[in-house]
Amino acid sequence: MLRKEIEQVMKQKGITQIDIIYNESDKLAVYCVLKNGTLKDYTDHVVNRKVDIWGYLEWKDGQRTRKAW
Q1: Other Cβ atoms within 10 Å of 9 Cβ, number
Q2: Is the pTM of this model over 0.90?
Q3: For 37-62, what is each residue's pLDDT tens digit?
């Protein structure tokens, strides 16, 4: 999923923060925040709009689960 699509979903669902996973094989996720309608990473840089992002981390009761879009 591209950054623009993620931003739209986050706006529709009222989500302001997300942990994205770039590739299925990545062991770590990148913490991101929706600021002024743009998805930015923890260093306040805009997420690359051309990269196809594999999935995200879903948090429930302190446990994380890797989810593909």
Answers
A1: 12
A2: no
A3: 999 999 999 999 999 999 999 999 99
User: Can you read off the two tokens belonging to residue 34?
Assistant: 């929706």
- Sequence-ordered strand ranges (E) for 1-69: 17-21, 30-35, 38-41, 55-60, 63-68
CA distance 29 to 20: 5
Domain map (residue ranges) of the chain: 3-68
Q: Are 55 and 68 in contact (CB under 8 A)?
A: yes
- String of b and e for 31-65 (b: at least 16 CB within 10 Å)? ebebeeeebeeeeeeebeeeeebbbbbeeeeeeee
The answer to whether the CB of 11 falls within 8 A of the CB of 4 is no
